[in-house]
């Protein structure tokens, strides 16, 4: 997976027809707005066509007109399962190389073309059994997308040379450092798979591979892998979205039909390992909390036993209603978290239980409870209620995956490869309905035996890594004879096809009304699928925290699900699970929110549960004590994560000591211990009031249905007679520009947060700022990421963003770089900033980055949850009702001069504060060489080293 920036939050952000050729009868396009997903005879179904070209290439057409978008989802049926010995990580490295250019698309241009066309979700990923490549484009760019995908598959090998290979080896090794070595428990998961699978098994090394193997890959290896696996007879493309199937078939034949088939791909026949005794592994890692991992070999995907174990995973660890959560996290408070999974794969699956212990708690005690729970399930079947909850969760999750056209396309590809039937969805859900509790019990007894498992116990300590593999100097020039071709060149491929007539971007419109008690109601209809999402947002975020109670807003929000006047915490969890509903609560900078999603048929009960949680919290003393322990452990976990530490320290420096946003959202240890029922209830009664709240609902629900539900469930929420409390809106008083280093001995990377105050929400030039930032550091193709990743290979990804709050704002550039190039990476970063300030963007760059904002808008609002959350965010910061629907007009108005003015106004390199979290011994000399002053050392809380942190006021020191 290539690391990509997250979308802004507020824009924030069957009938299966097997065909032997491309000449079936033409079906009339579906009516506008219709979905390919339907229910036929009570069975979920996706209307699709599967076509196979003479060269073996498969295309699956899913006509879905909910949005003017087309998802392109290409699966190459090769992954680590196809790697040769000594080449771990090869399939994933090849995924990266697929973006390095083709015969007709120069290196780096494919991503820019996608940006300019308004593409979203552009990326690739590698799993054990496959590699996929995907993006979503506006529907008028169907031909462009097929041109891009066909050239990647057929002509990528023409352009890969030693320069491109060396660069992506650097990038992938940075990804390994970031996702394995510098991430808590990354090496623990690797140790688990190395214990489960013997030498030579393709799943042994996990997907990322080792430094030694990644660095050892030669150009000849890349060519051989392409010849074997990257051929049309080993790939499937799913097109899902708003297109004419007849036109799509013609274009698929044009672009993919001429590609030459390769030799038949030999089947992978690897026996699943058989463990006959328990393996126990002890691992030390740079973590704060110990962790227990237990894993078993289990039946392959869609084989007998696979679905039974999926249900067992829900019973044992599927959320707050599960057995292990109730015992370990809730009742005994031994664990911080529990995760249980049946990871279904083609060569044999893995069933795993992962438990993170609370500080000071015994892994022996935790393991005994886990063992007892598994033994109990192997003896006595799940209850009818547990079976119903598991099935509800699976049904909701399955349908939710079909909401987004790209996820729909990927699911179809998954079924096509793993089940041999792209429209397997109805059969997939049916197998869960057919399973009996006794079958779950019997499969657990057969598969989850003590003598057939691996147990890994991770404890805090020294991280032991393989010997360092040097990064050799990268070649600057390809040697002669490095390139070869698999397909003949044709002149017409050299020109990108022009798009059809573009449809004007139309965004989901939220209609506002106000209930008698002052509650704002925002309705965004979306009848495409029987799903509904709701967000109740309250202006009770971090800025409302009392000075002596940092973290109180998020503590209060977290407590809402821990019991009401009529429901206990466990009753809330059980009821949500029975509905197949997802309910969460939390607090941000300006607001607190409760979010819920469910099937349409269960939405009234889901909203009733949300209303009870919001309006009638119990703030029980026992639950407060549980939450205190959980939050204290979470504070320790933050210290494990260098990017989180960098963000916390940066906020403290940039906002100044007295600003509420200077503190971590969790607060600190003293404030957590000091929080009691009185403080929580006072905060809730002061800030949770209907005239300071909005209920935002998006999905398959009419305005009349919603209003009736809202009146019934929220109409009795009394509006206080007193005026709403004011919050701390003072402008931040940041420290002057400086360099701050937080020591993390032995860290293989340096986590960077380069920050400064920024504009607040509602600034009239917000769209100029966003377009400017897209060019500078916001996009994958931005200047900063291109230079530091694609040119220098210093990082897996580094991005800039503006966070615009109600009364303040923040600019930040964030990412992790290889330890030994921390200084050069910062030097290059500041050069790119200086370049942005030197002159306005040229027409080509401006059009590309502006289109990446403007034309991508429909793709950024493609699920109910995102739409509801985005409207909630806009309301929370005081934006007008049309702030989202006005975005196309505002982005279209951005010019090179207006974007340049935003650069000069809002990007001042001299004012930037650099926070670096890394190995002081290696990083400090590099930071000193930069010459930026002052340079200071701080601890992970942001306190200057040698300075005692201020104590809590006496009034807040005790509960």
Automatic annotation (TrEMBL):
GO molecular function, one term: metal ion binding
InterPro entries for the chain: Metalloenz_LuxS/M16, MPP/UQCRC_Complex, Pept_M16_N, Peptidase_M16_C
Peptidase M16 C-terminal domain residues: 216-393, 677-852
Keyword Signal set for record: yes
Entry keyword set: Signal
Domain Peptidase M16 N-terminal: 59-198, 530-642
Top-level division of the source organism's lineage: Bacteria
Region (Disordered): 461-505
SUPFAM superfamilies noted in UniProt: LuxS/MPP-like metallohydrolase
Listed transmembrane segments: none
UniProt similarity note: Belongs to the peptidase M16 family.
Signal peptide per UniProt: 1-27
Name assigned to this protein: Peptidase M16
